[in-house]
Amino acid sequence: MSIALIPNSTSLEVYLNLCNLLIKKKKKVVVIITNKHVDKFLHKIPKNVKVLKIIEPDKSNLLKTSNIRINIFFYYFFIYLKNYLKSLIFFYILNIKKVFVTGDRENGTILTILKIAKIRKKKVFIFHSGGLSSKNMLLISRQKLKSFNVSNNEKFFNKYKKQCYLAPDKKIYSFYNPFLTKIFYFLNILPNDPWISGKGNSDVVLVETNYIKSLYSKYNVKKKIEVVGSEKIDNINNNFKNFEAVNNKLENLTHKKNSIKIGFVPPLWLEHNLFSKEESYRRNNELCKILKNSINSKKIDVFVFLHPKQKLRDYLWIEKKYNFKLMKKNISHLICNLDLLFTGFSSGVIIWASEIKLDVLIANIYQEKNTVFKDFKNVKYANSISIIRHELSKLTKKKKKINKYKEYNFKKCISSFI
Q: N or C: which end of the chain has fewer CB within 10 A?
């Protein structure tokens, strides 16, 4: 019996840790690579682990037009059919009994693998570190692409209603490229509702915190939902335990004692394909400039934390231009030592901040709005630059945070599912 892991580029570190845990428990592990971004990190996978490549095809040419010729249709159809058959063969040969995947809607290749798992009655676990992408976030990326707009295609909407979403702008958008939706329908691999993770061919959803569990329940996901924590939650626990030692390291880094510490999380404008590299830089540069100009006290330090999708080399300019400290460590190692979290859009880190009572300031100054955290008491949406400056001007050293994660132990919790 073997256990299959299907990581994406965001969850690679999390899944590598899970892989090592499975190896220690003498489990047979198979890592399935479904996209070229993960393929680049093949060298990080332990050598005694079987690696399968079932690569999602390049779909960039489909984004340019909604008029697809029949030969292009058959090209993609046969790629997905090939991936379907490869999955079927691998499940049989390798005797795969369980599958861990970051989501049940991500792309056509994952849809084929999960369909085979369902046919063969194998258990599929959704497991990812972090929050749950809101419909608004998913919608924004599709509004930028003409090919996803099916407002004038009544026939498509009537046939694939559950794959579509009526947006606030009264336009209708398809979750997948409409061209691919037809192929997925023909192969019978479409999820019931792709706009909500957990409504596809999965059996159990393993989440980080009780709040994320409540989100799945709010979206009416009927699957079994279990809180298992994560290695990042364990990092936060260790941060609480070693608060003073971490604080001393940060102050030695900046040569300031008892400073007010701001954590800046640059939005993933570029990495989520919302904007061009130039526009993404302009926006993040604007946020840095606002932050820099609003800090009058010499007793304030700014630490920059990146998302796993963000490459360090793409953000070195922040440290050079603004003298903010660009951190290599994940924010989970240091979040308890911060006095404020500052960002320009949405971030899963806000969930952690809320639960440990860390104040959050969101620069809500762009056309794209994401008010998913509007009911959080510790979150302030600043709708203008003047409000941002006002909020930063009254910033003070905050009291010690509250640890809601004391009872979490990832290795212990995940063990019951592997």
A: N
